[in-house]
Design goal:
The chain is of the alpha/beta class. 43% of the residues lie in helices and 15% in strands. The chain binds S-adenosylmethionine. S-adenosylmethionine (SAM) binds next to strand 5.
Amino acid sequence: MMNTINSKDQLRKSMAAPLIDWILKGIPNSIEVELFDDVGGIYEAQLARMELSKWWEEPRSFRKRAAYFEKVNGETTYHYYISNIRGKGQIGRSCQYLTHWFYPYKAKFHPQMIKALINWMGLKGNDVLLDPFVGSGTALVEAKTLGLKSIGIDINPVCRLISQVKCDLLEMEPDDLKEISVQKAFYFFDSKRKKIKLTGKNETLPFGEEDIFEFKEKEKLKKFFQLCYLYALSDFTYINKELWEAFNSNFYGILKTVREFYELKKKLNLRLGEAEVTEGNARAIYLKDETIDGIITSPPYSIAVNYIQQDIQALNYLGINHHILVKDMVGLRGNGAQRIDNYYEDMQKSFIEMCRVLKPEKFCTVVIGDVTYNGERLPIASKFIDFAEEAGFSCFDVIKRPILGGYARLRYEYILIFQKKKY
Ligand SMILES: C[S@@+](CC[C@H](N)C(=O)[O-])C[C@H]1O[C@@H](n2cnc3c(N)ncnc32)[C@H](O)[C@@H]1O
């Protein structure tokens, strides 16, 4: 007789059972775990198994860190609570939760995946995570909620701003956001829009002298409202939303996020890690040799995503001459075959730099898509493996993730895991 499924709970268990068996293979029965009900992909099961393999002996810590598990030894994990702080466009537990939704940035990591990779790398205590192509700061937000120190670098000042604000918001209290009225902040940033001229200088906050009184000595609040304005400008540009309406609704959306996280921090007694974000070049990382305990990064998908174009309205608003910026951006220099050569050359340099700053035997994970340029599918993942090995890494593992729907030019994403060789 067929089993009848008569409750949601049973349904979850029956769907996850084969995956759980595989994930638990080789792990002693001393730990009981339950996956989130939206974990279904093979790569997710791989990552769940990887994080569990590092932490099963410390179930109390694992409950606080786990990315793909809803329960550890019958207790609800912290990721359950964190991913319950729901953001715009969120569906399951993999992305858009917490501050991850705050700014529509293409080609960002799935934060849940990053959390699992940090766990598998075993980073803890005073260990430092680096993302030299930090983009919208996903890795830093995840490291922060795990109590880890992190460093993010990006050539684009808009990315520095996004990453910084997403991290700052995790430290802020709801009342901090209300120290100045939403209308006043909007008019302040909106009035600047008409006055900006392209200067070629990378200034994230070009307003200096003309600050309104309320922003004096409140850099975090000012940066937050500035990003809120850039978010509205993006909504206005791409989905034709009225500026004030977008600004106002994004403000109240993020206020809700900050309020919920503030309560959660108290409830779980969460200790946050420090995040440092700088404007810089991954081809010449400013850090000293062997100072980093782990790297997780996603370099530009070359050619597939024009990172300048997607933020052009924000760069113009900030007065940044994107023609100057492009010269240092990986993946955008040159045209045709020359562009591909430049991209490979830049990535070769970046691998040398990542290897230099990483401590021996530590791990560097690079997430990269399978890119088509001028109708040709480029062997980027295998090129990256060559570059990494030439730089002093060995290739530890490769996980292939299918990209379903959405951004159609990528079919697969590869999670390339490298280990720095011992001398
Ligand atoms: C794929 S995105 C990173 C997305 C990120 N993982 C996230 O979750 O938001 C790649 C980033 O590399 C940055 N970039 C391009 N050239 C760079 C360079 N020379 N140095 C540092 N960052 C660079 C781009 O500005 C872009 O933000």
